[in-house]
Amino acid sequence: MALFNIQSPFISNPIETREDVKAFLIGLLDPLAPHTSPGGARVHLGYTGTHYDDIAAQLEGFSRPIWGLASLLAGGDEYAGTERWVKGFESGTDPNGDEFWGYMRDKDQRMVECSAIGFALAVAQHKLWDPLPEHAKHNFEKWLASMNDKEMPNTNWLWFRVFANLGLTKVGSPLGSKERMKKDLDHLDTFYIGDGWSRDGPEGVVQLDYYSSSFAIQFAQLAYSKLAQEDEPERCEEFRNRAKKFAFDFVHYFDDEGRGITFGRSLTYRAAMSSFWGALAFANVSLPAPLTWGVIKGLQLRNLRYWAHQPGAYYPDGTFTIGYCYPNHNMTENYNSPGSPYWFCKAFAVLALPETHPFWAAKEEPFPEALRNTTKFLEKPLHIATNLGGHTFLLSSGQQCSYPVKQSAAKYGKLAYSSAFGYSVPVGSLTLEELGGDNTLALSDDAGEVWKCRRETKEARIEWQGEGEGRKGKWLRSMWYPWKDVEIETWLVPPHADTPLWHLRIHRIKTGRKLWSAEGGFAIYGQGPNGRALEPSTGEEFGTFENAKEARAASKAGVSAIAELGQGGSVQRRAKALRTDANTNLMVPRAVLPTLMDEHEPTGEKSVWLITAVFGLPAIGEQEGAKPGWEKEWQKRPNVPEELLKLMA
Fold first, then answer.
1. Three-state SS for 61?
2. Which residues form the DUF2264 domain (predicted)?
3. Which of 321, 346, 368 is the last residue of a domain?
């Protein structure tokens, strides 16, 4: 029986030229019209709740598309619906009007939306500020400046106030405070930790996720470096230099297909994760080979192309769903309203550039050959990024959210994160199926009633071989203490050239209580060609396979597998191709998870060792399933480093 072919409303757009990208943006802006209030100030896209009020949520729906609209207008284009936003600025900032947004309080969500608004005033004053009558301009600047004496979170939020004041000064408002802007920028500079990387907060914060790059800090630094060049040339040059260093790390988070590695929070912003590449172009920052303009263009456009092809990212009317590749509220944060996904529109910053700019004039180039089949140890984020064998993923230890975030153990605490397979989040707490425990070592002390996964990692570091420029990374090493009498030490070993599709995880467990363990590989699309659940299979065809110590699943998405190596005195675990509960995985609503399970008695002063080999090979392009011959790679097994075998002995 043929499946009904559900397609994205944007699938026919090739997204190769500036006109194509413009059409994609307009295709996102037009569907907002029926959801816009009579005065234009509020865009109501749904009824889900957030920790902030509904007026702020509707302001989100109004403001976030402005990242794209302002860029389009700055590039000299017209948009027929621009009047909706001009009216909205007038009615949303009128304290006596029915659609007033409300003045800002301390740590107010309205502050977040000021970033796009300030950017819009700075780049598209002629279309969005100049048409306003004088009384409306007065209300507007008073509302925007109302954040200057309010408390803000000590995070990337400070950039939102910087852009509010930058926008006000650009339009000549006396309420724009250069003094406030300088204080905020000086403080934001204390987040910088070197090699191009910034933390999302002060010392002690260890989040280096997409907020440290495209979602906020790197994007903001680059945009500021262009817009404030005359006022602060030295600081702007420093921001550009940071971006040049950062780019050679960040490129490893993207694959040939244009996908970014799913890691951290706020992934419902989708293409915003690639907006750093467009921000480089916006700021006219050229990079040495292999990151030529053609490569930068390819990184940005392939990511936009990928999202244009994801039907689950959109409702039938062309508005965004809340989720990643399909509607999924399990993975969202309490600050995700129906308007939140329009942070996506940061990826349209390249529309501010004319056709003659090197970004548009260059021929799009594929992912650089020099960066294929490589592994890079990223010291600042404590990641090992690899695309060896055609699978782009990272090994991770040492990051966690510095404040409560829903599903933070899944978003920051897992052992590996993939661009192709995505991570999974729990939908409940009482079964392994509900847990969505891909790429984690889950532990239970009550026979599987409740499971704990790594959330807070301790003593994480990359261990090196050699010194100086010639040193080579060996692995990531870290500790985790799920209970007071339980300690887990983990070594994450990246793929080797001889076994490029396998990586190793070695765990040493000391426990004062009985434990049940379950370790998952990569969660993979769990349906067969007929759309029904994968069935057992022993060959290369689609299906699942399991025996005493290994399990795998093969589907149109590729192959995922896990094996217990049982070397050096490690235990023998039983394997299972586990069908996880629906809507756990970010990329596919029905997934299979190869898993190893065991029971462990209290160890006393001794240790239990687990040696896990994890296999992953995604499908490429339009191809369904892994490339032919994958089973030969599956039959190989990686070697455990001698140093670790000696430690086990």
1. helix
2. 17-366, 374-644
3. 368
Confidence at residue 599, expressed as pLDDT on a 0 to 100 scale: 93
CATH number of the domain to which 102 belongs: 1.50.10
Tokens of 53: 């009020």
- Boundary of a domain, candidates 338, 368, 398: 368
CB 344 within 8 A of CB 271: yes
Q: Model confidence at 4, in pLDDT bands (50, 70, 90)?
A: low
CB within 8 Å of 385: residues ≥ 6 apart:
249, 252, 253, 261, 375, 376, 378, 392, 393, 394
Burial of 648 (0-12, 13-18, 19+ CB in 10 A): middle
pTM, entire model? 0.96
In a domain, 21, yes or no: no
Read off the DSSP letter of residue 104. -
The answer to whether 322 touches 57, Cβ cutoff 8 Å, is no
Omega into 341 within 30° of 0, i.e. cis? no
What was the pLDDT predicted at 539?
75
Place of tokens 């300088």: 182
Q: CB within 8 A of 74, min separation 6: which ones?
A: 123, 124, 351, 352
Give the tokens for residue 134.
Answer: 């004088």
CB 337 within 8 A of CB 109: no
Half-sphere exposure of 475 (CA within 13 A, CB side): 19
According to DSSP, residue 543 is labeled E
282: nearest Cα among 296, 295, 270, 264 = 296
**pLDDT value at 2 more than 50:** no
Which run of H or of E encompasses 411? helix 408-412
Please give the residue range of the domain that contains residue 335: 26-368
The number of folded domains in the chain is 2
Contacts of 564 (CB under 8 A, 6+ apart): 549, 550, 570, 571, 572, 573, 575, 596, 610, 611, 612, 613
- Of residues 313, 305, 294, 300, the one with CA closest to residue 274: 300
The verdict on 510 and 399 lying in the same domain is yes
If we measure between CA atoms, which residue out of 21, 60, 520 comes closest to residue 336? 60
Contacts 24+ apart (CB under 8 A), 9-14: 9/314, 9/316, 9/318, 10/308, 10/309, 10/314, 10/318, 11/308, 11/309, 11/311, 13/308, 14/305
| Two structure tokens written together for 563 | 């094996």
582: helix, strand or coil: coil
Residues 354 and 476 in one domain: no
Mean pLDDT of 124-153: 97
Residue 3 lies in a domain: no
Neighbouring residues of 618: CB distance < 8 A, sequence distance ≥ 6: 390, 391, 418, 420, 421, 557, 558, 626
Mean pLDDT on 547-564: 94
State the residue for tokens 């996102």: 28
Give the mean model confidence (pLDDT) for residues 104-133.
Answer: 97
Residue 23 burial (C-beta neighbours within 10 Å; 0-12, 13-18, 19+): middle
Sign of the dihedral defined by the CA atoms of residues 534, 536, 542, 547, in that order: positive
**What's the pLDDT band for 391 if we cut at 50, 70, 90?**
very high
CB-CB neighbours of 186 under 10 Å = 10
Per the structure block, which two tokens stand in for 621?
A: 């392009």
Map tokens 């296999």 to a residue: 615
